[in-house]
Amino acid sequence: MPRRTDVIYGTPCWMDLSTSDPERAKTFYGELFGWTSQDTGEEYGHYVIFSKDGAGIAGMVKKTDDLAGMPDVWTVYLGVEDADATMHAAADAGGQRAFDPIQVGELGTMGVLTDPSSAFVGIWQPGTHRGFERFGEPGAPAWHELMSLDFDAAADFYAKVFGVTLADENTGEGGPRYKTFTVDGESYAGLMDATGFMPEGVPSNWQVYYGVADTDAAVQTATGLGGAVQAPATDSPYGRFALLADPMGAVFAVLSLPTS
Predict the structure, then answer these.
(1) C-alpha span between 57 and 191 (Å, rounded)
(2) pLDDT for 258
(3) Which of 101, 200, 207, 233 lies at a CB distance of 3.0 to 4.6 Å from 242, suitable for a disulfide?
């Protein structure tokens, strides 16, 4: 698949990992997805860029001491044209600020908010950094999904704040309600009504699926590296997937994709 060269506003454009053990994370994701890692240096707080075949895929940062009691987590960022305006719109629509927008040199401006279902989501106003450069292939993000405990409020919020169309999807008889984040007729992420099956105590959350050539092999590799299975490999109309956690507990999914 050709490189992705720009941000599609209102849709996922980047992910990063907040981790308690960056060195172990480098090894784990490097072995699992074939990622290489580059430390961006003191100027950017030693933020790490994960790449695959020279293309930027995701980022990683060591958790600060004040977040030591929080779980390791992957954060999904939606592309926006104006981070400050988005934060104001989010507050007006029932969201809350988690981290105010900050400029990251010439790279862009980032912030984090919570939606009305209490899911954390990042926002990224791009500068020179335009987001992940590959999508929909092994070793790259393949899908993003908001598992929401307040489906209607979340759908209304993202449509108002991010200017995307939330299009209904048919999940079959008895299936959960589902909508897709759609821009110019193309779908870029999903919103699932998770009230019927979310484990007790698990809040609404954004989930990233990374493409793999073989889900069962990826599960075996991940567990061999100290990861854990959160939900076993399952077939779906879109490919075989599994929900995993890295050795420090950060949760992500893998999805089988064609290799060519």
Answers:
(1) 22
(2) 72
(3) 233
| 66 vs 51: which has the higher pLDDT | 51
- Residue 73 within a domain: yes
Structure tokens at 116: 């009305």
Residues 106, 205 within the same domain = no
Residue 2: pLDDT band (50, 70, 90) is low
Nearest to 93 by CA among 49, 143, 154: 154
Domain containing 70: what range? 12-126
Cβ within 8 Å of residue 57, ≥6 positions away: 33, 35, 50, 51, 132, 133, 134, 139, 140, 141
pLDDT in tens, 74-91: 999 999 999 999 999 999
Nearest one of 2, 3, 15 to 253, comparing CA atoms: 15
The amino acid sitting at 84 is D
Point out which residues pair with 206 in neighbouring strands: 146
Domain boundary among 95, 126, 157: 126
* Distance spanning both ends of the chain, measured CA to CA: 8
Residue type for 232, please? P
The Cα 61–Cα 44 span in angstroms is 10
Whole-structure pTM value: 0.95
